[in-house]
Amino acid sequence: MAKKTTKLQAVNQIISNIGQAPVTTLETTNPQVSLAEDLLDQVSIDVQSEGWVFNTERDYPFHPDVQNGNQIVIPDNVLQVDCPWGTDYNVVIRQGKLYDRNAHSFTWPTTQYLKVTWVFDYEDLPEAAKQYITIRAANLFAMRATGATEVAKYSEREEMNARAALLEYECNQGDYNVFSDGADVNPLRTYRPVSALWRY
Q1: Fewer CB within 10 A of the end CB, N or C, for the chain?
Q2: Which residues have C-beta within 8 Å of that of residue 155, sequence separation ≥ 6?
Q3: For residue 194, with 0-12 CB atoms within 10 Å meaning exposed, 13-18 middle and 19 or more buried, which class applies?
């Protein structure tokens, strides 16, 4: 059984992109390691913000806190929320709470069942997502650390192939049907133009 990629392995893969020796821990004062880890985290958030089958849920309940004026506090690991089609609400996250832009209010009379996009730690992502995130971060790291694109180990085609593998994972896990799934159900139709096959 193949072992799952760890964050340490990903950081070593990133720094090796410019010929740096691997490290045995992320608890280091090495500025290159810190930069690589920061880039990995940022790219991970950017990719997860697109909303994939592994980090998106529909009809997730958010309950008003009656002791706090019926406000709904949004957990820190929520990237974005949205209402189902046909509702009268227009929701956003503001000041860490659910806000209705139509009513200009933080107050909610009932539990809200929303589409939610979560952000997960690197280790909790599927391998297809890890691979794309790592290769993308490695190429960004090479450009930022050296200021030169020619030192990048991974080509644009490798990055494109890694993203294509992630999209294939998305299709397989999502069981999308172009005949019966509407735009609200199928993120590949809504958020994935052809150009998204190789960049975000």
Answers
A1: N
A2: none
A3: exposed
Q: Which amino acid is at 170?
A: E
- Residue pLDDT, tens place only, 34-55: 999 999 999 999 999 999 999 9
Q: What whole-number distance in Å separates Cα of residue 93 and Cα of residue 77? A: 12
* Closest-CA residue to 127 (of 36, 62, 176, 54): 54
Which of helix, strand or coil describes residue 58?
strand
For residue 40, how many other CB atoms are within 10 A of its CB? 24
pTM to 2 decimal places: 0.83
Q: Is residue 34 part of a domain?
A: yes
CA 108 to chain centre: 28
CA dihedral 52, 135, 21, 12 (to 10 degrees): 10
- 62 and 90 in a single domain? The answer is yes
- Hey, what are 125's tokens? 């992502």
Whose CA is closest to 185, among 197, 174, 170? 174
**Model pLDDT for residues 144-161, shown as the tens digit of each residue:** 877 655 656 667 889 999
Quickly count helices (H) and strands (E) in the chain.
5, 5
